[in-house]
């Protein structure tokens, strides 16, 4: 029972200690495989492969980072594999050959992939950092079959950053590049993959694998890429410093775990020492025979094997046979001089001991087989040599007979041994009883008490009260250490899990996990507050988030939430402006928008301002205030497709006016764009509609209105003739200039103006 307790305690301590220190590969590193992609590039004589990784601020992912030399010789498609080897093509957005880096833009953004955060701190601070290289080395592809998942095929190798220093070995060699000297194994195909730390933050891009020393490889520091990303307006997640693990923030945890290991070692040593003192010593019979003179006398052999005789006799009486009477299966106790058979779990043949019938395809074994094996064992112990194998004996068996005849035994016993090892099973004894009888071994010798052969335990002295007290104190101390270590392991594991959930922005799970721990340290309390703030942020409770994060600015994850809070608050306030426009409250929206720009200090003509203006123009367009929308889009015509949007607003407004019969307004709206080739048809239709409307108003004697219509299109058809006529009619009294009215009457009757030259 004590031994069981010791073993159980050791197992608990070791498992707890190992669990506390977590897996050899941290979970964020395993998660980073989801963001690592396989790259296949068409080249002149086939294709080449490499690795890459996703960047951005959220899903979907649009950009992939890799080495320039991966795509340098590209002559055709660049194929990105992810997920279940789904393929999407990519184009080279930015080439940086001097730094051996490239940015690829996906033809179709990937919504199922998360971007990796990039390290934005000082490169020199990375020296000594534990890192992991992720990628698709070609050697692995040659040795192993692919699975159905890119994630599962990512190869991970680990090591440390040995040094951070400038180098001309990267890129074109025209300039120095900040390089990371690493002892992480890199191979062809790893190029372009991410080099991440234990928190899954990218610190470099795997680039060079040394052919001279596998422990001397190189990666381009990710700092070489950040300035280009900023200049190109490509957003990305960043971390100025790795998120400290629970052990880093609580250094006392490591000594606690070490104490657990020491305690476990002490218990193991005590248990082993105790076991050496109390257990009986035994060796395999073949070992004992090899270490002694190789053989025994007849009387000693009978004495030694008497427990085995008992085992065989009981088995045969019960209709069983043992079929494994080989020296390696027999345990010999030197102090007692006795041997017992330990039946093997699986039957096997043993040359010199297995009977002939055991070699047949369908063995016909029985007690006679045990008799053969026991006879062979007698032969080995008495002669010092192993019985020849069955095939050799079948060809000629003179040696067996000669060796038995040379023994100092009475003829009857020699004959009994020869009969026991006969190749013909019908000539052997039927069972162990007959064999023992022929050897003249008495029943009292053959049936001893097996318990009497076990090693007698030494009589223990009565334990003194002082020793009992020591054992009691040691036991209590050991249990206390065990309990402390168990809780320490659980604490570390739970704390690390909470950090991982925070990193993955799973705030509810992080809060639930960290809440399992008592708030023993300020760090636990703060992580709980950050997790709660993340949950409230998702629920839109911004004021509560501000209160919870106050004073926690030094936490990277708090900064992430505060940045998200700032963005969401800004977006929420702008949404109010947007909604007012949609509801037709244009004046109120203008006032609120002005306050919004002043509050967030957004300058005119900045990229952010243009984006907001673009959205505001979209809102006006949705609200069918096309002219206001056109004015807004025209003010940012160099932003995205704003000019096209402005033209779309005018066209939509013109069509709406035309549909309502306001052809003059429609033509006026199109004034700025009337020379656009794609609008000529629409302009012609509206012009013709104005002409027909002017003509119609003349026939209705509405000369003033007709003059308005023809004035809008003076050069269209004979509009100028109508204008001359209408001018004269409108400037003179009808009673004095009847001839003009006669002309108008002719228009009404004939449908056209005769003798138009008369009125010019």
TrEMBL record:
KW Oxidoreductase (keyword) present: no
Membrane-crossing residue ranges in chain numbering: 252-272, 471-492
An example Gene Ontology biological process: proteolysis
Signal peptide, first to last residue: 1-22
Keyword Zinc: no
Keywords (A to Z) from UniProt: Membrane, Signal, Transmembrane, Transmembrane helix
Entry superkingdom: Bacteria
Any one Pfam family match given in the protein's UniProt record, by short name: Trypsin_2
Gene3D superfamilies the UniProt entry points to: 2.40.10.120, Tetratricopeptide repeat domain, Transferase(Phosphotransferase) domain 1
Molecular function per GO: serine-type endopeptidase activity
Listed name of the protein: Trypsin-like peptidase domain-containing protein
Species annotation: Christensenella massiliensis
Source species taxonomy: Bacteria, Bacillati, Bacillota, Clostridia, Christensenellales
């Amino acid at each position: 029972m004590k031994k069981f307790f010791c073993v159980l305690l050791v197992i608990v301590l070791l498992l707890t200690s190992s669990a506390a220190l977590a897996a050899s590969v941290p979970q964020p590193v395993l998660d980073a495989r989801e963001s690592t992609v396989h790259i296949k590039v068409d080249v002149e004589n086939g294709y080449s492969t490499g690795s890459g990784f996703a960047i951005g601020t959220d899903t979907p992912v649009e950009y992939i980072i890799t080495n320039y030399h991966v795509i340098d010789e590209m002559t055709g498609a660049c194929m990105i594999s992810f997920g279940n080897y789904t393929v999407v093509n990519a184009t080279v957005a930015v080439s940086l050959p001097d730094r051996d880096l490239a940015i690829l833009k996906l033809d179709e953004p990937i919504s199922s992939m998360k971007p990796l955060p990039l390290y934005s701190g000082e490169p020199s601070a990375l020296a000594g950092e534990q890192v992991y290289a992720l990628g698709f080395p070609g050697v692995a592809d040659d040795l192993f079959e692919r699975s159905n998942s890119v994630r599962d095929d990512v190869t991970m190798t680990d090591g440390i950053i040995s040094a951070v220093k400038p180098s001309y070995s990267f890129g074109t060699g025209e300039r120095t590049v900040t390089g990371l000297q690493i002892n992480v194994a890199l191979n062809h195909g790893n190029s372009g993959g991410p080099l991440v730390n234990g928190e899954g933050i990218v610190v470099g891009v795997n680039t060079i694998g040394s052919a001279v020393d596998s422990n001397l490889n190189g990666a381009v520091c990710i700092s070489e890429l950040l300035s280009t990303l900023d200049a190109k307006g490509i957003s990305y997640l960043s971390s100025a410093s790795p998120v400290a693990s629970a052990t880093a923030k609580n250094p006392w945890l490591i000594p606690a775990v070490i104490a657990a290991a020491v305690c476990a070692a002490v218990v193991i040593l005590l248990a082993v020492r105790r076991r050496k003192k109390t257990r009986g010593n035994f060796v395999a019979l073949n070992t004992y025979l090899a270490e002694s003179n190789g053989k025994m006398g007849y009387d000693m052999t009978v004495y030694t094997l008497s427990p085995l005789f008992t085992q065989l006799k009981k088995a045969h009486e019960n209709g069983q046979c043992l079929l494994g009477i080989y020296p390696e299966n027999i345990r010999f106790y030197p102090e007692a001089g006795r041997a017992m058979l330990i039946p093997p779990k699986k039957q096997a043949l043993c040359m010199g001991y297995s009977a002939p019938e055991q070699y047949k395809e369908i063995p016909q074994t029985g007690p006679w087989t045990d008799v053969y094996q026991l006879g062979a064992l007698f032969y080995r112990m008495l002669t010092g040599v192993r019985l020849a194998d069955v095939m050799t004996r079948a060809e000629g068996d003179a040696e067996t007979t000669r060796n038995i005849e040379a023994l100092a035994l009475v003829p009857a016993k020699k004959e009994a041994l020869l009969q026991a090892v006969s190749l013909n099973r019908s000539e052997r004894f039927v069972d162990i009883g007959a064999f023992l009888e022929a050897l003249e071994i008495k029943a009292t010798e053959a049936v001893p008490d097996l318990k009497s052969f076990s090693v007698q335990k030494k009589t223990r002295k009565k334990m003194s009260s002082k020793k009992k007290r020591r054992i009691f104190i040691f036991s209590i101390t050991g249990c206390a250490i065990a309990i402390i270590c168990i809780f320490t392991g659980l604490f570390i594991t739970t704390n690390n899990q909470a950090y991982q959930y925070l990193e993955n922005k799973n705030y509810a799970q992080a809060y639930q996990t960290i809440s399992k721990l008592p708030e023993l340290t300020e760090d636990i309390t703060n992580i709980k507050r950050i997790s709660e703030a993340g949950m409230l942020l998702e629920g839109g409770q911004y004021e509560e988030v501000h209160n919870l994060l106050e004073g926690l600015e030094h936490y990277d994850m708090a900064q992430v939430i505060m940045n998200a809070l700032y963005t969401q608050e800004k977006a929420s306030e702008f949404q109010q402006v947007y909604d007012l426009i949609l509801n037709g409250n244009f004046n109120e929206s203008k006032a609120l928008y002005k306050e919004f720009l002043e509050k967030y200090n957004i300058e005119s003509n900045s990229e952010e301002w243009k984006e907001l203006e673009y959205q505001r123009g979209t809102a006006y367009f949705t609200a069918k205030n096309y002219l206001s929308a056109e004015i807004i889009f025209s003010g940012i015509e160099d932003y995205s497709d704003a000019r096209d949007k402005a033209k779309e607003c005018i066209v939509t407004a013109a069509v709406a006016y035309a549909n309502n019969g306001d052809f003059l307004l429609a033509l006026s709206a199109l004034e700025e764009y009337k020379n656009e080739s794609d609008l000529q048809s629409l302009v012609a239709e509206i012009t013709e509609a104005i002409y027909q409307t002017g003509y119609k108003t003349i026939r209705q004697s509405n000369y003033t209105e007709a003059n308005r219509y023809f004035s809008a299109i003076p050069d269209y058809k004979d509009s100028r003739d109508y204008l001359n006529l209408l001018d004269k009619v409108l400037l003179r009294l009808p009673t004095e200039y009847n001839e003009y009215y006669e002309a108008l009457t002719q228009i009404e009757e004939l449908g056209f103006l005769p003798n138009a030259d008369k009125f010019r």
